[in-house]
Amino acid sequence: MTGSFVVPPQSETTPAPAAAESAGAGPVTPERLRVLLIEDDDADAFLVGELLDEADAAVDLVVATSLARARPLVNGIQCILLDLGLPDAQGLDGLRRVLAMAGGAAVCVLTGRQDEHLGVIAVAEGAQDYLVKGQVDGVLLTRALRYAVERKRADEDARRLQEVELRQAESARLERGLLPRPLMDTDRIAVHPFYRPGRHAALIGGDFYDVVQISPDRVDLIVGDVCGHGTDEAALGVMLRVAWRALILARVPDDEVLPALEQVLISERRLQETFTTVATVRLDLAAHRATVRLAGHPPPLLLTGGKVAPVPAPGGLLLGVAPRPPRAHELEFDSDDWSLLMYTDGLIEGRVGAGDERLDVPGLTALLDAAHGVALPDLPAWLVGRAEDANGGPLSDDVAMLLISSGSGR
Fold it and tell me: Do residues 93 and 63 make contact, with C-beta atoms less than 8 angstroms apart?
């Protein structure tokens, strides 16, 4: 195409140019733009360069005579100025191909007066602006290029914000599925749930818990952790928690619950190497007894008589690794005043000091020994705070806890 260019009048929604000077400050040096002109007519390409030079524009112009030659030049480009009549790309088809390869670069299209309607359509297709041949004006050309770059940045910021909001909304929905309200109506025990996401950009993981009472004297509890972080792991955690609740409410025999849960894990996991650790407790309130099963999970801690000790349950295999039901451990409560802490390993995997030593179960036991005067409802948050102090910062993994208490300790 031949001729010169004119920028169409800007609408009220077009941002005003940035002020050259701010109050009390000197002139602002404009950012240099790298602009790729895709134009097969040497005269028109020369004219664009002359217009930019005439306006003393802070623009580094790169010229390609076809779409094929432009493709390897896109990296580092902030704005693409596209002729809609190229030998290897015509009209809106060429625009769509440029938009597909532009990445974060803004796109402006060049049209003739008789084709100005194509410019309007091009903006609707995703271009940031269009320029019409007609009147030489280097200042307006430069301004249009800068406006296009700023609009592209604004569009990208809005898109990223929307993605963040969508992820947050999705995480909130998944979190509600991972961390339900206890299904319990007894007042003989109290359950204090707790959850804290790790520092993985607030990305929800697969930690979950649940509490179900199926008779006046029986309460079942589970704490679990699907390996990994992200919505896939969180969704799998929701499936496992819901499946466990269904199995408990259906009164499936105790020895068959975790094998059935493992079947759900194996059938629903996206990756074959995904595994899950769980700790389950069945409380018999009439007999003052608990049945504890561990599948690759750290043991609960029993607080009674002013002492703290891990429940000596045998550590079973991880769910999803080698199907084999974990052995049960029967725990007798010697008094009516006891508490049981169930937790995921994010609580104990933080470092202690400058070395590689972890808090681990002995360190957590020592923290509980030192928790004099801390009210039980506040104890989970207090433990996380002390673990973060020892770690020198936020814990990297999610932390889920259930603190069950009976007697005067409630």
Answer: no
